[in-house]
Fold these 2 entries.
Entry 1:
Amino acid sequence: EAGVAQSPRYKIIEKRQSVAFWCNPISGHATLYWYQQILGQGPKLLIQFQNNGVVDDSQLPKDRFSAERLKGVDSTLKIQPAKLEDSAVYLCASSSPFYRTHGRYEQYFGPGTRLTVT
Amino acid sequence: KQEVTQIPAALSVPEGENLVLNCSFTDSAIYNLQWFRQDPGKGLTSLLLIQSSQREQTSGRLNASLDKSSGRSTLYIAASQPGDSATYLCAVPSGGSYIPTFGRGTSLIVHP
């Protein structure tokens, strides 16, 4: 099966500009995640969708970041305006429907988008 | 709030050695634990997933164990090879919504 697709792979912008990232999950995967990974750190969850509803966005800086998942398939993450500290790799992942009684899910990641803010 | 710690942060070994990477978590009410590999400039590749009811999982030269009560998991890599060089991350979903928390990773270099 095709993996998680992300675009663009690289993006360089100046601070205060806006940028958008796109993610297409594995077909049939109901759960979609956006992570921010700063160099030398583990991924930090920004937002988690279940179909087209938000499960958790507690770590999303809502004054500048927004995300949507229309029709419960692909998703976009936007930053407006960007700051220097937003320089990071933005990872998208998806997982198949999980079963509470078994506690099982497995995340599949895309290649990421490396954002540099100058 | 779940916190995940990985030790060591970095490891450099000669080819052929057997390795142990450690992952600890503060909230033992987890659903599973997943180990990933990340190559420079790439996304994450899933290596092993251990369900909360399991004690270990094996895949080739990799073996992962889970001790929920003590909040620990180990990833054992047998007969390491230069191609194993990468960053290894563990992640645990917890809470009612399976929110995943990652460790900072162990950066592994296996030199010939």
Entry 2:
Amino acid sequence: KAGVTQTPRYLIKTRGQQVTLSCSPISGHRSVSWYQQTPGQGLQFLFEYFSETQRNKGNFPGRFSGRQFSNSRSEMNVSTLELGDSALYLCASKVGQGGEKLFFGSGTQLSVL
Amino acid sequence: ELKVEQNPLFLSMQEGKNYTIYCNYSTTSDRLYWYRQDPGKSLESLFVLLSNGAVKQEGRLMASLDTKARLSTLHITAAVHDLSATYFCAVDPNNTDKLIFGTGTRLQVFP
């Protein structure tokens, strides 16, 4: 069974640009979450989608948005990039709701210059 | 503000020794997770603890949860070099699948 796939693996952007990251969950998984990992702030929750609906949102500005498609694939968009957005963005999926194991993708390393 | 604190932040230990990583959190949570991250890699799920008193073991790692004390431990028995990684705990205080991660404990096992 294929794992969680994130594309691209690396991305370099400049301030003010926008970026879209993609996540394909494990087949059969309907919940997709996004996390930001930085050396300073650690791992922080961005948002979670289940069956195309955003169920939870973290404390990030409105420049961070996401969506989920009917095949459970998810995208995350960051507009008007700032230097502080440089981070590893991790996507995770699981089957449904409740206390289950989260399966993480390899992440997208975003560098904002 | 919810805080999830791990200690120690850095642990250097000799192969064959035992040690415990502690995870304290500041609000009630019935769900606690442990993850492992190798340098430059993603997170790998180790344990999911869903009730007070839960204990899970796999190989040289054993995790436990005391929800009343708001404390989880990850015990390492007879450490080997392959266990070198960063270990994170995470809580889900409102059972909403919004995980709050700890600071991480970087473990180095040397011969």
